[in-house]
Amino acid sequence: MVVNDAVQLTVTMTLFVVSYVFFRISVFVCFSLIFLAYFATMNTPLSLAGMAIERYVAICNPLRHSQICTVRRTHILIAVIWGAGAVPAITDLFITLATEPAGFFHSSIFCIHSNMFRAPAVYYKGQAFDILYFSFVSLTIIYTYLRIMFAARAATTDRSSAAKARNTILLHGVQLLMCMLTYVRPVLEVALVGAFPKHVLEIRYAYYLVIYILPRFLSSVVYGVRDDKLRKYLKGYFVCKLQRVRPITLLER
Prior knowledge:
Layout: H1 2-22, E1 24-26, H2 27-60, H3 65-68, H4 71-99, E2 108-110, H5 113-116, H6 120-154, H7 159-179, H8 185-195, H9 200-226, H10 228-238
Antiparallel strand pairs: 1-2
Helix pairs in contact: 1-2, 1-9, 2-4, 2-6, 2-7, 4-6, 6-7, 7-9, 8-9
């Protein structure tokens, strides 16, 4: 998931910088950037589901965790996630190749998804994939969270481990909820652009920060704060409290 987030943030930041500097870029370059960004974005909820399942196995089936969550199966799961994430972007390409004239691919456009993929079929196909993927991930996270919560209540030992796993699943649910804000983007964008037509780029940049940056920032911060050693140092820096150094005398040596 770290690699996926790094790819997603790098590509989307490149896309925003290029859009601000050049405004119109080649269709081929635009497609390459949008393909990678869309691919990485679709991988995020699927990765959250995979991580939730791993926590569920670790808490509810601890004796079989090492047998179920092997390195080989982890690699297979990652390949399945990345393959499933690439399907929507690949179908967008096929629909565009079938519906757009040849001259379109030699032109320059302002690089956003609606300008690159103009066929109505792309919109409806995207809605179908979004509903399918996010429904699957939502049900997976809800199911694993409830099972872990019940396991934590029934456990007589190792309650702290179950509580940490439950909090991890809850964090994934919050991240998924923030990712699902993508659904309301068209409505909000139309309303805001209609109210502030001179600030289209600023509106899209704010949307980028809220939808793409904030969920990944939240994940890094929360996982970092949960680490005892890192939390101790962060607490010292944020409260601006320096450790007092007591000089050592010759007698103490």
